[in-house]
Amino acid sequence: MSTNNVVFTRREFLRTSAVVSTGLTLPAFLTGWRGLAQAEEPGAGGRILVVLQLGGGNDGLNTLVPYTDDAYRRARPALALPKDRVLDIDGRFGFNDSLAALKGLFDDGKVAVVHGVGYPNPDRSHFRSMDIWHTASDSDRYETTGWLGRYFHNCCGGKPDPVTGVNVGAKMPMAFAGSDVGVSFTNPAWFRWLPGDGADTEKAFRELNTGKAEGTLDYLRAVSSSVVATSDKVQAVARKRRAAGDYPQSRFADDLHTVANMILGGLPARIYYVSMTGFDTHAGQAGTQERLLKEFAEGVKAFHGDLAKAGAADRVLMMSFSEFGRRVEENASGGTDHGTAGPMFVIGDGAAPGLKGASPKLTDLDQGDLKHTVDFRAVYGEVVSRWLGGDAKQVLGRDLQPLGVVREG
After folding, report:
1. CATH says 23-193+247-396 is which class?
2. What is the value of pTM for the model shown?
């Protein structure tokens, strides 16, 4: 390899330039992207999935409340919600009244609620269970690719745009792993390529794009062009940011407002990923969970309403999950400990509304924990196949019976 014209090494290039954001993550596409300008834009005008992660292990029994079940009240003398604080669904189950905004969407036919979601041989570690949900693996297998990473790789065709997947947060989720797709930022306005040393970096960029450099600088040329193109695309949408309007004041609502701006601004993303934290309620659960559930419900309602006003709600589906539920019995600290199964929500105009799956029995437990009745991968699979139009078996490596959480057609 000739090095006569090689002025900047990789190390020098990375030292004199940076892609800057609060919590920015850039994935593997920076090491091999070649066709950004010709990339498809599958999310522009098409269907979009917004994944909502409730980190910490949300207590499902005080979310979707079996309020007429005596076993629920016996197990939770302090934490069981009184009947006047439950928003009835079917005479047996109801929403925690902190979810009043979500109940409104449910009554409008926009929410599917899935009972008892989990997986065989559950793991009660936050980290391991979250990995299982992110990779859609069995609990005895360790995968290196995420379920959304496999979706991008197998179902998006050719070389999709890096912004086909967007995480609003500081750290790229494991669910995106194994793909050349995905960008992550806490604020799109700060997603940019920023020169470090002025004239030196400008000179480096000129060298990278003149064709003088050979060998390893082909790599750098690809890096530079893809970083700048992706940065410019996100920045162009960020400049169209609209006022928060009806969104409540919370970090979660702010993140959903960012997603709405990206969607309505024309960013070609097919998947958005938004996370909440704080659901690990070992002590003082009541006040903490109620606050978080209210933030969740009101954020979701504002987001859906924002999209509806713009005529875009029919192409955006939300799906929420938590890495596990909580144990049936309350503990001595006014909280609950790590458990197993819990509910999932599928929300939007494309949701097939109602209660789905069989509810776990509170009198038939596995060492004090609920037995799951629905495998979470069945929900993933239906969302992939019916909503996103992908091949669920390619993504998940298995066939699972649809539950009817997504409207057909």
Report:
1. alpha beta
2. 0.85
